[in-house]
Amino acid sequence: MNKRFFLAFITIVNYSCIEKLEWEEAENTSGRLVVEGSITSEQKAHQVKLIRTQPVIVSEKPVPVTGALVSISDGAQLFILTERESGIYSTKEDVQGQVGKTYQLIIDIEGEHYEAFAPMIKAEPTTPVSISKWDIPLNFGDGVDYFQFLYRDNFGSAVPYKYTVTSEINPNVKDYYPENWVVPQWIQTQLDKVASENDPVTSDSSYYLHPGLEPPAIFAYGESNEPRLAYGSKVIEKFYSMTDEHYNFVRAMLSETEWKGLGPFGYVAANVPSNISNNALGFFYASDVYIIEQVITK
Length: 298
What we know:
The chain has three helices and 15 strands. Among the domains are: about 35-120, Immunoglobulin-like (Sandwich); about 130-240 and about 290-295, no CATH class. The protein is mostly beta strands. The protein is globular and about 70 Å long. It has an eight-stranded mixed sheet, with no helix packed on it. Strands 11-10-13-15 form a four-stranded antiparallel sheet, with no helix packed on it. The protein has a three-stranded antiparallel sheet with strand order 8-9-12, with no helix packed on it. Helix content is about 15%, strand content about 35%.
């Protein structure tokens, strides 16, 4: 580029008229209902969370919606949800969804009626995550092994899943090693937690598995591993099925949040879809769960 032209261009840019715009904060909240709820094929208490929308700039947390009448129906049974915490409604612990049924969420609050429908499709089986020996030498003695697994890639799944992977330590881990084994501090810390809290979980991660690559999100995720697993440890994977409607909602949410502004391709801003009636926001879904459990043994 001609040097004089470049300097002239910089001069024009620097002296261009720039108008300062003041941000006008919204004074009134729209107060639209926001719903986050689900039912799965697991036997447990299923939750529905309710809040109201707020102004664009606020320092307070969203206000929970209390006193609502919330239920879930499969056409034959009606499950009444109880408000266990402020704005959080739960079924009884023995409720278990079934593949092939369509579930209806019903919400009544302050004279307003809301509902949503969610079919439960089967979670397709898949292969377990690969567990290998942890390849960092620790010099704790001959025959002492520890293990690791690589977290699944976010992209390239055969079908979309909501995915969780949890690792647990065996409280009797010492039975898997020689009598003279010196227990590493990280394992002793985990054993102390089990003893005090009755909680064997050592790691817990939840994210989505996508069937296609999203160019703006290429740099959002990196390869990582879960190391230092001992003999007797359990690795539990859960794959939650997703309908096309549910996945489109999740993809739209990520496009407006985690993926926004990443990479040169970008997304065009758009409203996030919802399956809740009466102009409410959020989503209610039903998921079958495919579970894989692996125990590390000799």
